[in-house]
Amino acid sequence: MMNTTIKGIFLTVTLLLLAGCGSGLNYHKAFMRDNVSLAHIERVAVLPFEGAADAKRIREFTMTQILSSGLFDVVDKGRVDSIMQQEAIAPTAPLDSFTIRRLCQQLNVQAAIFGSVEQTTDSRGSAVFPEIVMTLRLIDGESGLILWQASGKKSGYSAAHRLIGVAPKDSFELTMELLRELFATMQ
Asked: What is the pTM of this model?
């Protein structure tokens, strides 16, 4: 009887650890401008991201997530980059309201999405796992105001990895999960 109770306690503690450990490593925070509807936004331009070496690839993941979720239509990145080059706009330069309006007009979009990303690896003991931190902003093409902004962090660390050897999530899985979570705050 005592042996069964100890096994039950061990099982309960293990399940709690698997469910809860690492939860502090994943979070997000979002802002949505009050009294503003996004209904007028049909097409967006995803501008080059700032940050990590993988920022170009993560920009493409962002475009994929926007399209697959049905949030907006997205202008091809080649067209965005071409117009930015024609206008002598540096890929990650800060843009004023006038430049944002002009860029959105030329691309025939109602808004632009800006982003910054940082990818790292971290370790705990012998465990090595990826982490990603991302901020996304939806800027109105007419007013230049931030309509929505979300920031988040996602970690590949998990108690399951540490306790029972489950492989940590790779950076692609983490990026796509974080993008889904961030864009879900827009709806």
From this structure: 0.80
For 74, other C-beta atoms within 10 Å of its C-beta total 19
- Domain ranges for the chain: 25-184
Q: Are the C-beta atoms of 128 and 144 separated by less than 8 Å?
A: no
In the predicted model, is pLDDT for residue 162 greater than 90?
no
Mean pLDDT of 39-43: 95
Instruction: Retrieve residue 80's tokens.
Output: 């965005």
What does residue 144 show for φ and ψ, rounded to 5 degrees? 80, 5
CA 50 to CA 53: how far, in whole Å? 9
Beta-sheet pairing, 111-124 with 127-140? antiparallel
Among residues 113, 118, 137, 28, the alpha carbon closest in space to that of 64 is found at: 113
Q: Counting beta carbons within 10 angstroms of the beta carbon of residue 62, is it exposed (0 to 12), middle (13 to 18) or buried (19 or more)? A: buried
Amino acid at 113: I
Q: Where is 177: in which H helix or E strand?
A: helix 171-184
Taking the CB of residue 168, how many other CB atoms lie within 10 A of it?
18
Q: Are 127 and 116 a contacting pair, CB within 8 Å?
A: no
Summarize the chain as % helix, strand, coil (round to 5). 40, 30, 30
Fold held by 25-184: Rossmann fold (3.40.50)
* pLDDT value at residue 168: 67
**10 Å Cβ neighbour count for 56?**
12
